[in-house]
Design goal:
By secondary structure, this protein is mainly alpha-helical. 63% of the residues lie in helices and 10% in strands. It has one domain. The chain contains five helices and three strands, in the order βββααααα.
Length: 125
Amino acid sequence: MKNKEIKQNKYGIEYTKQGDCYMPNLVLEKEKLELNKYGRARLNYLKTNKKAEYMIMFTNETLNNHLKEIQETAQKRLEFMINELVKKENITEELKEKNQLAWAAAMNSIKSIAEEIIYNELIYI
């Protein structure tokens, strides 16, 4: 494999030669961000379906803030929707004590519904 030449311009940007072109050495923001499943899903969606939007956010260093906002919003909405659906479906602690299987099935169903809404409204847009 041929050694790659690294160049730096007056603005402090390093470039690596790949073939006949010089590509900028891009790095993520210095802030470490722990992504939950909604943040990772949004990142994956941007990388595979919205490549231009992903690159713009990446180069403008707004990607981490965007992912952080999406995952926080998704988590809050999930908790809110689950609570509202539990009230609407009248799933109580009494049901949990009497019939744990029915309670678990109802809660799993509610969580699936809430997550489907979150994915359609926040992640895949």
